[in-house]
Amino acid sequence: MKPNQEYNYPGKVYSGFPMLFAVLLLPFLLAALFFIVPFTPVALGVTGVVVALGILADLILAFGFFTLQPNQSRVMIFFGEYRGTFRRTGFFWMNPFMTKKKVSLRIRNMDIAPIKVNDKVGNPVMIGMVLVWRVKDTYRAVFDVDATAVADNASGNASQNLSAVVGDSTAKALNAFVSIQSDAALREVTGRYAYDEEGNSHDEITLRSDGHEVNEQLEAKLNERLAMAGIEVVEARLNYLAYAPEIAAVMLRRQQASAIISAREKIVEGAVSMVKMALNQLSEEQIVELDEERKAAMVSNLLVVLCADEPAQPVLNTGTLYQ
């Protein structure tokens, strides 16, 4: 057994039902003592002391009962000393002086509200994520996170989601820890990448077009940060991504201009290909013989027609080709 590490509780744990029967039966047995002892002051006094002690013991024994549902655990603490983690499900009884702190091992969901961060090129963006996590190491979750120094500005939404994970103080401590570390990891990962491609370059990973790679980086960073609190990240993914309001209009016009330029490039590329095909076909089928000047004029007219935004207007030529 290594220090500061979770291990299974090795002590005695009994089924709760026989012990419940014994705890309920004990008061009746104590009451029966008054009917079997002599009715003398000394005997009645001794019997009264015995009954009082028995009732006190019975009340103490009643604090040893506890239940566990699937994907729940109990961290056993005996006068400040960690004695192990109990994970079996059912109704049990154990030493009533053992503190049994409940820790949920179920999957939890947290919605991190969008925050403003700067991407790789310095553009302010609004980015949010969904975090799915669970407690993996109960020792670290209970003992390595300080429940007495909970941040007052922790997320209220996440606090509601965590209220049933562990005791109130530990839940708030975990909530503050997960919220702060998630915010820090999101800022760090976002700062590595640009929001979108710069200059139509597809060589670098971007936040908008390479969400899968960004999510993997975010999940790895969160696992690295939250492992110290015994928390395992099941999934982390971006669920909100947009430019900050102060530059959103400008970046929208930039995206529109970039889209227009890309479309124009495709149009010109297609027009040149069509002109080349037309000249080759005219030459191969010997439909008409064109000199270099007429080829240049034909190329110019075809490019104007193919690249124009408006449809071509017919023009009637009443002269010759040279006039």
Q: What average pLDDT do the residues reach?
A: 80
| CATH 4th-level superfamily of the largest domain | Band 7 domain
**CATH fold descriptor of the largest domain:** Tetrahydropterin Synthase, Chain A
Fraction in beta strands: 15-25%
CATH-level-2 architecture of the largest domain: 2-Layer Sandwich
- How many helical stretches? 8
Strand order of the largest sheet: 1-5-2
Quick overview of this protein structure:
The chain is an alpha+beta fold and 323 residues long.
Description:
With 323 residues, the protein is an alpha+beta fold. It has three domains: 14-101, no CATH class; 108-243, Tetrahydropterin Synthase, Chain A, CATH 3.30.479.30; 249-307. Helices cover 47% and strands 20% of the residues. The protein has helices at residues 16-36, 41-62, 138-144, 156-162, 168-190, 211-226, 245-285, 292-307; strands at residues 14-15, 65-68, 72-78, 81-86, 90-93, 99-104, 108-118, 124-135, 231-243. The chain has a three-stranded antiparallel β-sheet with strand order 1-5-2, with helices on one face. Strands 4-3-6 form a three-stranded antiparallel β-sheet, with helices on one face. The longest helix has 41 residues, at 245-285. It starts with 13 loop residues before the first strand and ends in a 16-residue tail after the last helix. Residues 151-167 have low confidence and may be disordered.
